[in-house]
Amino acid sequence: MADKEQPAERTPFFVDKNAPHNEVDFARIESAVREILEAVGEDPDRDGLLETPERVARMYAEMFAGLKSDPGRHLAKVFAEDYDEIVLVRDISFCSMCEHHLLPFTGKAHIAYLPSGKVVGLSKLARVVEEVARRPQVQERLTHTVANLIEDRLSARGVAVVVESTHSCMTMRGIRKPGSLCLTSAMRGAFKTDPKSRAEVLGLINRAAS
Ligand SMILES: Nc1nc2c(ncn2[C@@H]2O[C@H](COP(=O)(O)OP(=O)(O)OP(=O)(O)O)[C@@H](O)[C@H]2O)c(=O)[nH]1
Ligand SMILES: [Zn+2]
């Protein structure tokens, strides 16, 4: 006897398995997106929009992949090193989501720290930025969260984080000011208290690439 026909399985969503991944509720996002499309006067059943709710759900899973993770885990592995001058990684690109409008803000983060007997792998600084960015955010919180993590986990004598970014909610809607740039900084330890250290690190961050 032929097997009873099974209900068609849904195509599994593609999520980049290598990327940090937050378990979002795909079905709820899909139905909400469908609702929004209808509310703006669109027909969610027209050909071009049929897969849009799924796509948006996948996009949110990706954009909010850092929501529940601890970005500080990237700073757990350190190397003992007798180096106590500035370590700076400049121009770490990132893309985050403004929590007010759920529109992207994109830019660069510059991270410097003064080690105290231990250094961290350089890529880990970029991993921290990447993960803190993948949450509904404001730029100020992104900036000081990264600074606090580095200060705490590395026991750094000084930390400087400077973030520059363009907010889509200011460029494509509302006040509509393309080209406007938002700069934020968080200074900790010697970079906060010692004007010479602060001037030195800001000089390195602002130095034009050769
Ligand atoms: N401080 C801060 N503000 C942000 C950030 N991203 C977006 N905003 C601002 O959040 C504010 C939200 O203001 P509201 O008055 O509640 O919203 P709105 O009516 O859409 O504001 P407009 O953008 O002025 O049209 C806006 O001024 C945005 O520019 C951020 O990272 N930090
Ligand atoms: Zn916004």
Describe the structure.
It is built from seven helices and seven strands; from the N terminus they run ααββββαβαβαβαα. By secondary structure, the chain is an alpha+beta fold. The chain folds into two domains: 39 residues, Orthogonal Bundle (GTP Cyclohydrolase I, Chain A, domain 1), CATH 1.10.286.10; 134 residues, GTP Cyclohydrolase I, domain 2 (2-Layer Sandwich). A five-stranded mixed beta sheet has the order 5-2-3-6-7, with helices on both faces. The chain has a two-stranded antiparallel ribbon with strand order 1-4. A hairpin with a 5-residue loop joins β2 and β3. α1 packs across α2 and α3 packs antiparallel against α4. The N and C termini lie far apart (75 Å). About 6% of the residues have low confidence. The structure holds guanosine-5'-triphosphate and zinc ion (ZN). Zinc ion binds next to loops.
- Major sheet: 5 strands, mixed
Q: Please estimate the helix content.
A: 25-40%
Looking at the structure, the CATH topology of the largest domain is GTP Cyclohydrolase I, domain 2
Class from secondary-structure proportions: alpha+beta
Q: How large, in whole angstroms, is the Cα Rg?
A: 22 Å
Separation of the first and last Cα atoms: 75 Å
Each distinct ligand: guanosine-5'-triphosphate, zinc ion
The strands making up the biggest β-sheet line up spatially as 5-2-3-6-7
Query: How many β-strand runs?
Result: 7
Let me know the average pLDDT.
91
Structural shape: elongated
Number of helices: 7
| Overall number of domains | 2
CATH homologous superfamily label of the largest domain: GTP cyclohydrolase I, C-terminal domain/NADPH-dependent 7-cyano-7-deazaguanine reductase, N-terminal domain
Low-confidence segments, given as residue ranges, are 7-18
CATH class of the largest domain: Alpha Beta
Share in β-strands: 15-25%
CATH architecture of the largest domain: 2-Layer Sandwich
Order of helices and strands: HHEEEEHEHEHEHH
